[in-house]
Amino acid sequence: MSTATPTIRSVRARAVVAPIARPVKTAFGVIEAAPLVLIDVTTDQGVTGRSYIFAYTKMTLKPLVHLVEEIGRELTGRPIAPFDLMAAMDARFRLLGWQGLVGMAVSGLDMAFWDALGQTAGQPLVTLLGGSARPIRAYDSYGVVDPVADANDLKRSLEQGFKGIKIKGGDGDAANDERVVKGVRALIGPDIALMIDFNQSLDPAEATRRIERLAPYDLHWIEEPVPQEDLLGHAKVRETSPTPIQAGENWWFPRGFAEAIAAGASDFIMPDLMKCGGVTGWMRVAAQAEAASIPMSSHLFAEASAHMLAVTPTAHWLEVLDIARAILAEPVAIVDGAVTARGPGLGLVWDEAAVARYLV
């Protein structure tokens, strides 16, 4: 184990389209496979820090690869001190703004920097952050489902010990949402948390109507009922909702969460490591959640999120939507419906044969 601070020697990014076990249907279309950008940060000590980001569509893969490598080139030779590097990237993109692809690239690099530090120290990231690895309660995340056609998959989730199931709505009318929620609730029983995600597909008035209609089915939360940037709309829906409102996967960096919390936009929050500023940003968001007594869950990136939720004072749920399983040598492990952080660093190791197969 080295005691010297490592420096950045090189940054490499690769684009893959990884198969996923279940296509994810949302109100806006179907995700059939996972377009990912794999990030490798090599240090002067021969350690490689790894992370990945989710491009949502193949269209953004090449721009993201280019951004990650260009930003990495500018940072080459600098010590891996993530807070300092985040400040440098903030200054670099202050005039441009760093939402969108730039924000994703910055966040992905931050995760890789922290992974490199964990590997250099020979410790899991959670330990490096002052916590300890522990099982984090997880829910299995689905797209739009049919209670009959998808019954076997849903039962398999219960057999894995999941105590929560999330489905998506908003792809049809209110009657269809009720049919699906009613069917899934009957299938999983009263003791499993059931969440529904509208993926920003409704306006506040329609969201209020649908939430009222779904109230008898004891939903654990209603996720992103209206467009993510409509903080006042979220707050308006929340005022009368009998079910807690969840949001945050599309709020950018700690400032975005500060504005959302000030607006009273949500009962719960769920940062996405790729949009909130990576590990560095997550820690700042977690402090806000603690100060406001807001339960905080994760979005995607189960491997890294298990580390982060273990040091989050208001940790709530970890989302399992296993988009990287096909390219990892050691995919995320579900034990009794929970995920425990693994190391060193983030515990990510590429299956290079699979990476070569899915490279684009």
Automatic annotation (TrEMBL):
PROSITE patterns in UniProt: MR_MLE_2 (PS00909)
SUPFAM superfamilies: Enolase C-terminal domain-like, Enolase N-terminal domain-like
Keyword set, alphabetical order: Magnesium, Metal-binding
The Mandelate racemase/muconate lactonizing enzyme C-terminal domain, residue ranges: 147-244
InterPro entries: Enolase-like_C_sf (IPR036849), Enolase-like_N (IPR029017), Enolase_C-like (IPR029065), Mandel_Rmase/mucon_lact_enz_CS (IPR018110), Mandelate_racemase_C (IPR013342), Mandelate_racemase_N_dom (IPR013341), RHMD-like (IPR046945)
Keyword Magnesium: yes
Protein name: Mandelate racemase
Source species of the chain: Bradyrhizobium sediminis
